[in-house]
Amino acid sequence: MQTVFSVRTSGPGLYEFTDEVARFVRDSGCREGLLALFVQHTSCSLLVQENADPDARRDLQEFFRRLVPSSDEPTMRWLTHTTEGPDDMPEHIKTALTAVSLSIPVTDGRPAHGTWQGIYLFEHRSGAHVRRVIGNVSG
Amino acid sequence: MQTVFSVRTSGPGLYEFTDEVARFVRDSGCREGLLALFVQHTSCSLLVQENADPDARRDLQEFFRRLVPSSDEPTMRWLTHTTEGPDDMPEHIKTALTAVSLSIPVTDGRPAHGTWQGIYLFEHRSGAHVRRVIGNVSG
Amino acid sequence: MQTVFSVRTSGPGLYEFTDEVARFVRDSGCREGLLALFVQHTSCSLLVQENADPDARRDLQEFFRRLVPSSDEPTMRWLTHTTEGPDDMPEHIKTALTAVSLSIPVTDGRPAHGTWQGIYLFEHRSGAHVRRVIGNVSG
Asked: What is the pTM of this model?
C-alpha cells in the first residue's frame, strides 16, 4: 500500500510528520512488515531525530549551515554550480550528507521507532514549498 | 519475521554485530528477500564498513569527533541544546550524518553484503548502553 | 526478484545508472512495491541527486574531497590506517557520510523518484573499478 505525504515547509528547518506516518500505517492494516519513506526532491531530506526539544532541531540545522555555507561566503567561492543562487549547491550537498530514504519496521501495526524518535522532513531551501514523500508499506 | 538485536556498548566506537544478523536471517528461513535494520535511538547509528583493520574503525570515530566536537570546545560554543551535557547535541548531529536504517538484500539465505563489509552499531555516547536494533526480513 | 548492477568507474565522481534500474524494475513485472539497492563496497556509495547539470556533480565531489582530504595533507596527519595509501581512509569516511543502501518505492511499474532525481554510484577511489550494486524488488 502506498501514499504520498505532502509536507509544507517555510524555510530551512525540521518539519515533523510522525503522526501522519503512524496514521498511514494504521490505515494500511499492516500488523508486521516494513515501511519505506522516500523524498522526491534533491534539496531536502529525511531525518529521524529527537522529538523533545526544539533547541536540538535548531542546533542541527545550524550545524549543517556552518558545515556547508552559501556559495557567496569566502570559504565556498570554489563552487561552480551557482546559476540557481548561492544556496542551491549547498542544498544538494546537505541532502547528500543526510538521507533520501528510510526503512522502518512495522510492529503491532505501528512504525517501530523509539519513544523519543520523530520523523522529519529536513528542508534545506528558503521560501515556501510543499514536499512530496512517498510511503510504502509491505509485508 | 522480526527480531530485536541488543548491542552492548561502552563508549564511542564501532560495535560489530554481523554474525548476529546472519544468524537471524538464516533462522528466518528466507532464501531471497530483503533485510531491514533500524536503530531505535538518536545518539547512535548504523554503519556498514570494512571489517578488516581496527585502525580504520578508530580513524572513522576520530574523524567524526573532530568534525562535530563537544559543545565545550571553542568552535562549538554556539550550540544551545546543552542541558544534557556537552556531548548530547554532537551525538544527535553524528547520527544525522550517518544512518539510522539499512536495507540489505537477502540472497541464498544470507545478507548480500560484500566480503569485506561488516555491520556495525556506531555508538556516539559515553558510558555503558544496550542499544536496540530492529531487524525485519521479508520476501 | 534480484539483480546485480555492474557500474564501471574511472576515478572519483558520480556515475549514473538510473536507466539500468528502471529497466530492471520494468522487467521484474512489479507494479507496486519496493526497490532496494545496496552497494557491496566500503569505498564507494549510493546517491540520489539532481541529474540536470554536470557542474552540480563536480561540486558535490569537490565538497567531499575538501571535507575529507587525503591523509598526506597537513590537516589529516592524525590518520593511522594509511598502509593502503593516503586515500584509503578518506574513502571509507566518505562512504560513512553518504549511503550504502537506498529504498525506493515502485509505483505503476517504475521507481518513484522525482523528475530531477537520478540514481548514482558515488565513486571515492582512484583507478578503474567495476562496482557491484545488488537490486531487490518485492511486493
From this structure: 0.97
Q: Which of 70-99 (C) contact B at CB < 8 A?
A: 78-81, 89, 92-93, 95-97, 99
The nearest alpha carbon in chain C to B45 belongs to C96
Identify which of B2, B42, B79 has the shortest CB distance to residue A105: B2
Q: What is the mean pLDDT of residues C39-44?
A: 97
The one-letter amino acid code at C5 reads F
Alpha-carbon distance C54 to nearest alpha carbon in chain B (angstroms): 25
User: Is the model's pLDDT at C138 over the cut of 90?
Assistant: yes
- Note whether C138 contacts A: Cβ–Cβ < 8 A: yes
* Span B87-124, pLDDT tens digits: 999 999 999 999 999 999 999 999 999 999 999 999 99
Nearest CA in chain A to C108: A2
Put simply, the answer to whether C49 touches A96 (Cβ < 8 Å) is yes
According to the model, what pLDDT value does residue C52 have?
A: 77
DSSP chain C: -EEEEEEEEESSEEEE-HHHHHHHHHHHT-SSEEEEEEE--SSEEEEEEE-S-HHHHHHHHHHHHHHS--TTSGGGTT----TT-TTHHHHHHHHHHSBSEEEEEEETTEE---TTEEEEEEE-SSSEEEEEEEEEEE-
Cα C100 from chain centroid? 7
CA–CA dist C33, B102 (Å, integer): 17
Mean pLDDT of C9-29: 97
Instruction: Looking at the complex, report in whole angstroms how far the Cα of residue B105 sits from the nearest Cα belonging to chain C.
Output: 6
3-class secondary structure, A120: strand
Task: Inform me whether the C-beta atom of residue B6 falls under 8 Å from chain A C-beta atoms.
Answer: no
